[in-house]
Amino acid sequence: MRVIHLKRTFLARTETFVYTQVTHLQQWQSMVLTRELLNPELFPYANLKAFCLESPGWRKRWADLNYKTLRRMSAYERHFYERQIRDWGADLLHAHFAVDASYFIALKQRLRTPLVVSCYGYDVSSFPNRYFGLGWHYLQPVWRWADLVLAMSNDMRTDLVNLGCPSDKIKVHYHGIDLSRFGYIERPLTADKIRILFVGSLTERKGVNYVLQSFAQIADQRPQVELRFVGEGPLRSKLERSAQSLRLENRLSFAGFVRHEHLRDELNAAHIFCHPSVTMPDHDKEGIPGTIVEAMATGLPVVTTRHAGIPEIVTDGEHGFVVSERDIAAITRSLLVLIDNPALRAQMGAKAAQRATEMGDAIRQTAELESIYKEVLSITSHHS
């Protein structure tokens, strides 16, 4: 059986979760169709066709103009994808992000190939409110034409229903992480330095400001504690300036972007993982941040927030602490408890690793995805 993955851009550096799904399928052959190729050195994939590489000339320039101004697919670009789907004999289409699904929806409408759509966060939280509500209208064809819509969490399922997606088309499915890259390690109970780690984009939604503010309250009380940010983003320079003004630059470090295969080293060197996501004024929010699950898999206790699907994988008081969004005092208290109690860190970290294995194993979750594919084929063939 053959599935074609649809993604407008393959792939942004933060979209490892899409690559994991594409590369972990066992019972299905995969192909990727994309309009733009990005970071191929990070995400190599042989069975891929990119419109930008195979369609030179004025027709491509016209297609690009359509895309940039109207987010519409030209007939020429559509024919390119249709030809690939027919020639390859695809049994199923899998669009990643609801926004991308809307862009490619004409392929489903014309070919009637069964379509699965995965939603991940902004596409069903902030995007519907964009462009004076036009984002909401842009997504409506997806709910009509998709055969199944995958939500990362029950929280996201609720968002989808509120956006008009029929509840009987929604299934909660977490994509999982590659646990072979993030094995559990026992950290020593005694350590000269305690490292708090954040991994993710340095953006407001990730709560990086609250990480720094909490650390500033802790630093004077606990001289053995240091903070490390892994990731890039628009807030990096602001964080660096804040660290200097607080005279914390010797206790705080920035790793910048770290390739996924080296991320385990950063996680293994840490003692506590802090990721206090927040909901933005435009309702933008996460699904379930993969870095939290990766940190848990290595045995790190987590300090995080009651945000989107996070409480569905992190249980407060068991795998770490889950506090209210933007509650700096609660973040600080939670960090101090973990800093001062190495045995508790170890206990919570072990339970976190077990939780990540049970809920987040990409092999297990991909096997479930393959079952979902078969279920969709069965239902659509019966209806036809």
Q: What structural keywords apply?
A:
single chain, alpha/beta, Rossmann fold, 2 domains, seven-stranded parallel β-sheet, 15 helices, 43% helix
Explained architecture:
It is a single chain. This protein is of the alpha/beta class. The chain has two domains: 197 residues, Rossmann fold (3-Layer(aba) Sandwich), CATH 3.40.50.2000; 182 residues, 3-Layer(aba) Sandwich (Rossmann fold). It contains 15 helices and 13 strands. The strands form two sheets. The chain has a seven-stranded parallel β-sheet with strand order 3-2-1-4-5-6-7, with helices on both faces. Strands 10-9-8-11-12-13 form a six-stranded parallel β-sheet, with helices on both faces. Helix 8 links the parallel strand 6 and strand 7. Helix 9 crosses helix 13 and helix 12 crosses helix 14. The longest helix is centred in the C-terminal third of the chain and has 22 residues.
Compute the number of strand runs: 13
CATH superfamily of the largest domain: Glycogen Phosphorylase B
Which strand order do you get reading across the main beta sheet?
3-2-1-4-5-6-7
What oligomeric arrangement do these chains adopt? single chain
**What CATH architecture label of the largest domain applies?**
3-Layer(aba) Sandwich
Largest sheet: 7 strands, parallel
Indicate the mean pLDDT. 96
List low-confidence stretches. Answer: none
What's a concise summary of this model?
The protein has helices at 16-24, 51-54, 58-70, 75-88, 98-103, 105-111, 134-145, 154-162, 208-219, 236-245, 263-268, 290-297, 328-340, 342-360, 362-383; strands spanning 2-10, 29-37, 48-50, 92-96, 115-118, 148-151, 170-172, 194-199, 225-230, 252-256, 272-275, 302-305, 320-323.
